[in-house]
Every structure is written in C-alpha cells, then in structure tokens.
Amino acid sequence: MLRRLDRIRFRGHKREDFLDLAESPNASDTECGDEIPLKTPRPSPRDSEELRDPAGPGTLIMAAGVQDFSRTEFDRLNEIKGHLEIALLEKHFLQEELRKLREETNSEMLRQELDRERQRRIELEQKIQEVLKARSEEQPAQPQQPPKGQSQASNGTGTDRRSQGLSSRIQKWFYERFGEYVEDFRFQPEENTVETEEPLSARRLTENMRRLKRGAKPVTNFVKNLSALSDWYSIYTSAIAFTVYMNAVWHGWAIPMFLFLAILRLSLNYLIARGWRIQWSIVPEVSEAVEPAKEDLTVSEKFQLVLDVAQKAQNLFGKMADILEKIKNLFMWVQPEITQKLYVALWAAFLASCFFPYRLVGLAVGLYAGIKFFLIDFIFKRCPRLRAKYDTPYIIWKNLPTDPQLKERAGATVSRRLQTTSSRSYVSSAPAGLSKDEDAGRFHSTKKGNFHEIFNLTENERPLAVCENGWRCCLINRDRKMPTDYIRNGVLYVTENYLCFESSKSGSSKRNKVIKLMDITDIQKYKVLSVLPGSGMGIAVSTPSTQKPLVFGAMVHRDEAFETIFSQYMKITSAAASGGDS
C-alpha cells in the first residue's frame, strides 16, 4: 500500500525533463546579472535506476526531498531578494522624510527662542524681587522704646528711613503709571522667521491664480473706467468729468476734489458691504462663466490644467518683467537718446519750481494733464499714424528695450562681426579652385569645433540644410544602467550617410554618437512617457549593435527630424539596392 501511494505522489515528469537552472534563461531584464544560479547535480544512471525501482520507497522519498529542497531554496532566495528591494526603497523614503523633518524643524531658531524666554524669566524674577523689597520697606516697624542714650541716633535713622520710603513710593507710582509705556521702548533682537514653502500642487496653483484674478479685478475695473473716460465711451459722462475737472483745476480745488471722490468711493463701499446693491460703471461689466471644480481628474486632465495655469502665469510674469525692465533701462541710460529727453524734462521742471510760484506751476500741470487725458489721447487713439509721430511718451515707451531684446541685439552684432571677419580671412586664405560645396563641408563647425573632426568623418560629410544648426534633444540609451550614460543632452545632426549626436557635456568625443544610416534596421516615432498627452516627442532608432532601440527624446521639431531621417534613409537604401541590382 505504501509503495502504491509513493507512485501516485511522485507521478509526473522525469528528472531529465526539467531544465537545469544554469541552462535556463533569465526570468526578466531587471534581474542582476551577477547572481550565481543554483545548479543541482544530475543523478547518475545508477541513482536513476534506484529512483525508478518501486522496491525502494526510502530512496525515492530522499530524492524527492532533495528536489523540493532545491526548489524551496530558490524560492527563498527570490523572496529574500524582494524583501531586500523593499527595504532599500523604505530606507530611501525614510531618508527623504528625515531630510524634510530636519528642514522643517530649525534647531537654531528653537535655541534662540529658548534663550529669549530665559532672559524674560530672569527679568521677571528681578522685578518681583524689587516689588517685594519695596513692600517690605513700606511696612512700618513696630515701635520700640529706645534707651535714653540712643534717642538722638534713632531720630537720625528715622529720617533716613522716611526719605527712602518716600523715594520708593515715588518709584512705584511712576512705574505703575508709565512702566507699560517704558517697556514698549525696550530694544529686543529681531526675530528671523522662516516661511515654510508648500509643495507644488495643481489645485493649489489654480486656486492662487483665481485669487490673483479676483484681487486684481477692482484695479482692472478702475483702469477700464479711466480708459472709457479718455475714449469718450459715454459722451455725457466724459463731458461732465472734463468740465468738473477743468473748473476744479482753474479754481485750485483739484486736490480737495480727489479727496472728496475717495471719501465718496469709501462710502459707497460701506453701503455695498452692508448689503446695498449699488452698481455704477462707465463700462458695462460682463459676468464670466465660472467652471465648477472637478473632484476626480485623470492624469492627462491634471497635466493639461497645470499647463494652462503655467501658461497664464508665464504671460503675466512676462508682462510684469517687461514693464520693470523698461523702467530700469530708462533710468540706467541703456538708450541714451531716450533717457536724455527725460533728463531735460526733469531739469526744466526743477527750474520752473525754483523760479515760478507753486500755484502757477500746479495750474499749468493740471491743465496740461486734463487736455492730454481727455482730448489729445482721444485723437491719438483714433489716429495711430499721428500717434506714432507726435506722441512723445508713447514713442519713448515703445522704443525702450527689455533685457532679452538687448541680448538679442548684442548677439546679432557679435555674429555679424564674426561673419565679416571670417569671410575676409577665408577669402584671403581659400584656394582658388575650391567649389561652394567643398567650402561649406570644410569650414562647417559646431560649438566645439569642426564638424568632421568632432565625429571623425571625412571632410565632405556635413549637416543637411534642414538641420544645419541641429535639433536639440536627449539621447536615451537603455542598454546602459548608469544615470550619466543613460540620458545625455545634446544636438542631433543628419548628413548624407550618417546620423550624428553631439553631447552637450564637455569632454572626450566618446560621449558623441555616430550611426550609419545603412545600419539602421528600424525607425519610428516614439513616446517616452505614456502619461503625457499627445503622440510624444521622440524618435526610436534600432541598429544591430544595440539590444534596445536608441531613443532621441524631448525634440521640439520631432516631425521634421523624423521626415528628414526617414527620407535620407530611404534614399540611401534605394541607391544601394539599385547599385546591387546593376
């Protein structure tokens, strides 16, 4: 019976049918190549005969135990490997949490606060001791009858005590009346507060942009109303405002008029805050539709939301930066002919304020501002060509450059000088019988030197006209495991016969990559990150020398580069095929 049970239990494939662990392929690409696979020794023919012999159940059970032991040892190693990876990940996350906690809890700040509290405690103890001492001195001592010989001495000490008690009372009264105000003038060290920075959040970013828009709405409405007054959007309103303003300036009531308008605006705001419905605006307000906030967003929707908010923030910050840079360049004599006009105007205003009475100067400035705002600007806005010729503030503001414009001008000037000098030197040194193509191939260079020297190519190999300056991209070599070799930033070029990648890091030419177009086995568009919307910004190129395709990612002109590489590849392959047939 036991023999029959053993046969049923160990029925299955023979030992020779199982693959040896040393001969089987790896389970995945992520497993480390340095692992030593477990290899169980093959049984000899004699042992196999003993295993097949039904008369030896003990031997059969021993062999099965060895096989189960080898399998369990292999499973244990895999389990230990998984636990080790989990432990490393937990260690990494714990280190990040520890770093964040150290940044959040500033020990130096806590130590400073502790020292300040100790100093306050010492001062309070001193004040309490002074108060207790003053009270003890005020308490009258019980009268004792001194001897006759000491009567005069006791009279002297009594007067001293009375004077000390009077001075302490005066000090106490002064401290009770004015001590609180004196404490306010006590100098204390300045507290350095460290603001905690919030992590990046798409919802928080969108909410801040909406808050900024709501906060700037009163200012934008005020500017729109002023522009409507200047444009005579409502003829009656603009005519009344112009008449009232000119009369106020003529009679010297301009400042009281503006103060009265400010008080009137605050009064209206008080009534609105109390619930009154008061709406007055020259320009009719258009209510914008508010989209309800979605709770559950997909990854693509979150990414698109962040892109929209980032685009608005970029445009807003760009406009603010342009205004600030123009004001800075106006006062820093970047454009001397423009700053000279401001310089002369300031001297004229200074001399006028020195020699003319303030009433006359204020009247002239007020009348000019009213005529300029209500009449001249209205004419200039309706006649743009007239404004471009005679509106001096508008011309000055438009001609003021920003910092990026100054950099572009400086770069264009330097490149023009380099082109003129290089053309002169080349005309003087170039041989007479050299054609245009040979000249371009010989003297074409990248940022680091001549093209053919960098990639070790012949002199007739030069970039095509489409990619003469190259395409910015990053090379992702998935055969490499080191981060420095896995991703490289650089520029991609296409020549007649080669695909050349120039690394942006300074160093030897080993970081550069040269691929022969004839060796390419497959080329296709590639999407590096699947969570991003769109079709991606990468190109995958397969060659026999690489196990996994080389990916050129983060290419802005991906479609243009793909068409150029594919057409050149088809051109070379068709030429090679026609040459082979002939």
TrEMBL record:
It comes from the Eukaryota. Gene3D superfamilies: Pleckstrin-homology domain (PH domain)/Phosphotyrosine-binding domain (PTB). It comes from Microtus ochrogaster. Residues 84-134 form a coiled coil. The lineage of its organism: Eukaryota, Metazoa, Chordata, Craniata, Vertebrata. Signal peptide: none annotated. Residues 44-53 have a biased composition (Basic and acidic residues). Residues 139-154 have a biased composition (Low complexity). This is GRAM domain-containing protein 4 isoform X2. The chain crosses the membrane at residues 254-272. Keywords: Coiled coil, Membrane, Transmembrane, Transmembrane helix. Residues 21-58, 134-166 are annotated as: Disordered. Residues 449-527 form the GRAM domain. The keyword Coiled coil applies.
